[in-house]
Amino acid sequence: MMQLAESKYDTEISPASIESADNFLASSVHDMKNSVTLLLSGLEKTLGSPEAGKLSTYSELIQVNHEAKRIHNQLVQLLAVYKLGQKIYPFDPQYICLADFLSALNDQYAGLLRMHDIALEINADPDLYWYFDEDLVSGVIGNAINNAMRYTRDRIVIGAEESDKKLVLRIEDNGNGYPCQFIRQQDNLAQGVNFHEGNTGLGFYFSTLVARMHRNHGCAGELELQNGGSLGGACFILRLP
Amino acid sequence: MIAHTLTVSKPELDLSGKRILIVDDYNEMRTVLRGILYNCNADPKKIEMADNGNQAIALLKEVKFDIVLCDFILKSGKNGQQVLEQAKHQSLIDSSCLWIMISAEKTMEAVSGAAEYKPDAFILKPITEGNLRSRLLKILAKKEVFTEIYAAMKQQDYSRAMRLCDKRLASHKAYMIDLLRIKCDLLLSTGEYEAAQKLLGRILAERNIPWAKVALAKILLKKSDPDAAKDLLKETIEAFPTYIEAQDMLAQTLQTLGDLEEAAAVLERAVKLSPNSVTRQKMLGDTAMKIGKLTDAELAFRKCISLGENSILKTADAYLGLAKVCGTNKNLLEAMKALDQLGKNFSPDEVGLKTLAVKGAIYHQNGDTEKARKIADEIGQAVDAEDFRSGSGDALEIARLLMVAGDKDKAIQLLQSEIKCNPESAVLLRDVAEIFDQAGMGEQGNQLIETSRQEAMLLMNRGVLLISKGQYEEAVDAMREANAAMPTNTRVLLNLAYAIITYIQKNGPSPELIEEARSSLAAANQLAPGEPRFIRLMASLNELTSAA
User: Which of A142, A213, B77, B79 has the most neighbouring CB atoms within 10 Å?
Assistant: First the structure.
């Protein structure tokens, strides 16, 4: 559903916006995102019906739903990257309860995790609150969960704790970990587009931007990739001041 | 730190008995939402649905809803925000009503926008049953903590609101920052600037929060330190470029400082970020017009008018502004068209005299001195006959016309009494000076302004001076005199009430005095709603009467 313009001034396309490929790309992404939203609500309805579970293609449907969600998330992140660059993103940090925040993310992935026999564990003190933009950070953690689901053997642990006046969010799995050059070059990952390995770099780029958006008294958020962690696999760390 | 592993069990959402309104232009979406609500035990007979804003308003007028789910974008007529604004403006919903705005993406309005017209939550699409359920649970729990506080604020019972706030702060850590924000607002409302400043200092030491910075800037403005407010707001905008409140506040500060060029530039940036505010567009139009940027002003006024078409916040000033811009551009036809439109949208009682004055001035500007003179005479008579009250904002337009096409002395008189009613407004003083300037009497005008201002200040403060000397009866008399001379001066009205209340405290009450204090407070509040001093004086008066 396109956002419908409400006055003639909204519908007028200024010469500047025709010339600018950026705006053209952004409005196309916007349109695609809205289409995928419709697609998702159709799928949600289908999957929610009592007959859905009896379908022979049920697990394929779940996978299709997941892919559509992934596209939606990526389009949302593309738009956010564009808006952050233009300084027009409605950045909206709030005090968030980490336990609630992570359990909502858990709900989103529950069906898929069950299908792939992956156990997701969340460790967060119910009294832990932190100040951040919920939508942006949930995009970052969503990316990390998607990644972990692809490479883990069967376990993912998400932990949230305060350390050294920062919030530390860890997403760990028991897979084989990140490739060595990933760890070595992590400062450049944000720029790394590697079509060969199917890594567009969008996820890391978005996550880095989001980390840096969060500042407090001269201190900015940061990402770190490690191998090892509590499960011996990959460990994605987001620190927010 | 001890980590807790989350368990899956969650409290169930039970919507039985709740009256719910769903507003969405897509039939499919309405059905999906209703389906989810059914699954949460909602009573089918208590769910109403609307596919456009007007229908929603009609339902809101009939039923007191407990929950409203409203799409932000509605195809025709009002959008979701405008429906909410009208519902709040006309008190169609109670403080306890939960309003959820649904939108395809996070909008600027979700982040900033006037607090009194904010929904309880924004939910992003796509909506799934799981996320709507958990969001509703959370928002309902939060609402419960705040409803009583908002209800107390609505009844202007600020001390009760404050007590409730402190009580909740002790028991609800989860909502600490929201409660602190309300507490700051309350302290600002009651004029306890020192306490507010201290609280904000504590919040900001912990974390740079944009609303806290803006609140601090507001206090600096109240304390007549606009330069410090300006610096603070610029710093805030640097750190939070999309926090529009900071930009609106900066524009206002720059206007106080007389830097209209910069104010217009700030507003231009703000409307690019968030173009759908009637108030902001009007402010931009006014400012751009004052610095002669007529094209920008015209664009802003037109946008303001088109936004206002579906909005309860629509303003006659946008039509008048557009007419004035077109008049200055020698486009008489468009100017008259704007005034016609104004006449169709507002009643003559509200805007008649002002509209006529602007019309006259436009005729004058466009060389039709005959018509201008005729209108000026007509208005001159109306001003005499109707016992014209200054301080209404109409006086400036009327004086502008009379100055060039009518009774100049009457114009000067009007401007003088306008200043006497509001001698502390830098913006008004500049506007008046500009009118004198245009009439070619700049120097003389400045003297007139200064004399009127000083006279008013003297009269205003006489009562307080007498009170400090313990001459209570004389103080009351002095303020009565001042009130007779400047009937719409808010400070005089408040000082009169203050003098009477002090007199009563010393000499005991009489029904006449209490009534006099009460009515002058009511008059002050009508002129400048919600002034901290009004709130404090009202509280002392209520204390006196309940004691008596």
Answer: B79
- For position A187, what pLDDT does the model report? 73
| Contact: A108, B130; criterion CB under 8 Å | yes
Domain that holds residue B469: 456-548
Q: What CATH number labels A93-240?
A: 3.30.565.10
Smallest Cβ distance to A90: which of B106, B299, B310? B106
Instruction: Determine if residue B19 is left, alpha or beta; phi over 0 gives left, psi from -120 to 50 gives alpha, anything else beta.
Output: beta
Nearest Cα residue in chain A from B110:
A90
* B434: Cβ contacts below 8 Å, ≥ 6 apart: B290
| For residue A8, pLDDT beyond 60 | no
Point out the domain boundary residue: B146, B180, B206. B146
| A21-47 tens-digit pLDDT | 778 888 899 889 989 988 988 888 888
Q: What angle do CA A152, A155, A157 make, to 5 degrees?
A: 110
Is pLDDT of A11 > 50? no
* Burial class of residue B413, CB neighbours in 10 A (0-12, 13-18, 19+): middle
ipTM here: 0.82
Between B73-77, B181-185, B269-273, the lowest mean confidence (pLDDT) is in B73-77
- Virtual torsion, Cα B284, B289, B291, B293, nearest 10 deg: 90
Size of interface A-B (CB pairs under 8 A): 113
Give the pLDDT of residue B117: 87
Q: Specify the DSSP class assigned to residue B115.
A: G
In a domain, B186, yes or no: no
- Looking at residue B392, what is its pLDDT? 64
**What are the chain A neighbours of B105 within 8 Å (beta carbons)?**
33, 76, 79
Q: Do B110 and A87 touch (CB under 8 A)?
A: no
* DSSP state letters, B302-336: HHHHHHHTT-TT--HHHHHHHHHHHHHTT-HHHHH
Mapping DSSP onto H, E and C, the string for B535-547 reads HHHHHHHHHHHHH
pTM of the model as a whole: 0.86
Q: What is the pLDDT of residues B20-37, one digit of tens each?
A: 999 999 888 899 899 999
User: Is B320 among the domain residues?
Assistant: no
3-class SS at A213?
Answer: helix
User: What chain B residue is nearest to A43 in terms of C-alpha separation?
Assistant: B128
Length of chain A: 241
Task: Report residue B487 as tokens.
Answer: 């009937």
Beta-carbon separation of A95 and B177 below 8 A? yes
Classify residue B387 by its DSSP letter.
T
| Cross-strand bridge partners of residue B68 | B21, B99
Which of B5, B32, B134 is facing A122, going by the closest CB pair?
Answer: B5
Dihedral sign from CA coordinates of A241, B4, B7, B9: negative
In contact, A227 and A175? CB cutoff 8 Å: no
Q: Are B208 and A97 within 8 A, CB to CB? A: no
By C-alpha distance, which of B369, B87, B462 is closest to B100?
B87
- Which CATH number do you get for residue B133? 3.40.50.2300
pLDDT tens for A184-196 read 877 776 665 554 5
B181 lies in some domain: no
